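Record type: monomer structure entry
Structure origin: computed from sequence
Chain ID: A
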Amino acid sequence: MRYNGVDISYLGDTGFRIEQNGFVVYLDPAKLDSDPKKADVVLMTSDRTSLKKQKLSGLLKDDTLLLAGPSVLDEDFCEMAGADFINQRGVEIRGVPGFVSNNITKDMAVGFLITMNGVKLYHPGNTNLIPNVVDLKAEGVDIALLPDIDKAAYLVKEVGPKAVIPLNGHSDKLKKVLGSSVKIL
């Protein structure tokens, strides 16, 4: 799918590839094509989706940046906690606090807000939302990538995206949950 010059490809589970003008970002890339495009950045939201560097070798370049939430225990990834921010060749990536279970302090994870070509995409990954996620409303999120249909209505209300892309191919279920409150891509 293409949205304002940004190509977004769903890879299965919570995985996506986002690209613009040859710059490629992978989010939770658990499933890959047989000949994947080389990554400039790989982002992992939680340990549940953690992959070892050798499993990612087919998409890595010498200078690929590997970033992950605090719950990802892998020495190949640099930790990116909520509110951390980087700019890589004009692509802005910000960590958004999240957690995997009901124990926020024990199971810290991270979602990501990616700004590419002026398009803001929010990917919560395998995380639940921490209440301060309402700050995302002020960011003007264009697209929310929704991993969990049960939390979709809450996320849309709190984040206020212009459009959503459901993970795991749940478009019909999402339409029932959200109605016409937001565009489903």
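Annotation 1: The CA atoms of residues 11 and 49 lie 13 Å apart.
Annotation 2: Helices lie at 53-56, 135-139, 152-159, 171-178.
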